[in-house]
């Protein structure tokens, strides 16, 4: 791919920015310049919001079934162009091709799921204490949805928010992630080719603190759905909350993975490695705190280290993990590991960028396993968003639960055990929006609600039917039937 200029997408076409400022986007695998990305100004964001506002009433006036048919066409076109989408994701994020293809498939399933929702979009019918009064609820659109996404799983993040927003009759202004700009542009082009009316879906590129913040602050934006870091989420909750916009926050995690003494250790190591290292650890749902029963600690530790050392880094088919998304992120992870070492952590493997020449220019971090840290240490508590696992020994299931819950976050959790009692006891009590037994800390599907407790979110859930509550207003409609008037 030659170096590109990536514009915004407003009112059904590429839109030249008001200013002439551009952000450089580099390939995570080898650091080469890929594109110059529009650094949108407030004026650009306002143009996108205006287009969304003008297009929304006609979109909302379509029946949900008609909207669903357009979403189904988007799914079909995404499938037709899935190789192109996956190649773009692989290039912009550095993930291996099978991971990029899997993510694309998941995004298409989101489109299919919410296309079908056009034939449901259920309300409730309600009883009444008043004779002959009949009530029911209907969903109405909120208006303009401002969607802000990160780059870690770019097409999945776009799909999770865009499809429920659209099926509910909203128009969209998507703030693309700085590190995955072109995939957002390609998605926008597909929506147009699939028949989505101009202005219903718009993309602004650029820096979060400029174009993202402009979207959050604009009083014409009725709902802000944000996926990203907890600090930015807190700011959004404050400013968008102040003007009473609906806010949905999908934030960070420091997800516990418990290994009991009765666990199938082969399976536990397999899922532990996937949870910590797949997608180069750049998942909100990554497993990063491993709470292991003391009696199996040494065995689990040695096997996880051996597994981590066997993983293949790179971007060719079959590689286990690619680089992280930016030089800044790579440096921040390596600095966090250095601080862990200074706190007394033992780096059992990894802890640095690989020194092989073929990866030297990329933003790689070797899969890293650390023990000897307290669960209250920085790495025991703070999300690092990279391929780093800390191990902590626990005496029993009660100590495992207490350690799992001693976190400001509460996104996902996993437990490995062959005891139904332990599994059920733990899953019921762990402070997490997702609790998995004998699997990884991740693995959501389009119809499953996802979101977290505490600093992991603000209580909303996307996707699944729960996402409809983010993107629609409920209206209760009542009729009084007057039998006296019957002829
Ligand atoms: P980030 O918060 O820096 O950026 C996310 C998005 O927000 C980007 O598009 C960015 O441009 C934008 N942004 C930044 N500052 C902004 C501001 N002031 N106003 C408006 N928008 C702004 O996060 P990141 O480092 O790109 O992504 C990693 C984080 O995302 C991690 O904390 C991870 O756990 C979280 N995440 C959460 C989920 C989830 O579903 N809970 C999923 C994926 C990632």
Task: Describe it.
It is a single chain. It is built from 15 helices and 22 strands. It is 40% helix and 21% strand. The strands form six sheets. The protein has a seven-stranded mixed sheet, sandwiched between helices. A five-stranded parallel sheet has the order 10-9-8-11-12, sandwiched between helices. It has two domains: 5-251 and 457-475, Aldehyde Dehydrogenase, Chain A, domain 1 (3-Layer(aba) Sandwich), CATH 3.40.605; 255-437, Aldehyde Dehydrogenase, Chain A, domain 2. Helix 3 packs antiparallel against helix 6 and helix 4 runs parallel beside helix 5. It is an alpha/beta fold and 487 residues long. It is globular, with a radius of gyration of 24 Å. The structure holds nicotinamide-adenine-dinucleotide. Nicotinamide-adenine-dinucleotide binds at residues 148-152, 175, 177-178, 208-209, 212-213, 216, 227-229, 232, 235, 250-253, 284, 383, 385, 411. Nicotinamide-adenine-dinucleotide (NAD) is lined by residues 148-152, 175, 177-178, 208-209, 212-213, 216, 227-229, 232, 235, 250-253, 284, 383, 385, 411.
Q: What descriptive keywords fit this protein?
A:
single chain, 487 residues, alpha/beta, 2 domains, seven-stranded mixed beta sheet, 22 strands, globular, binds nicotinamide-adenine-dinucleotide
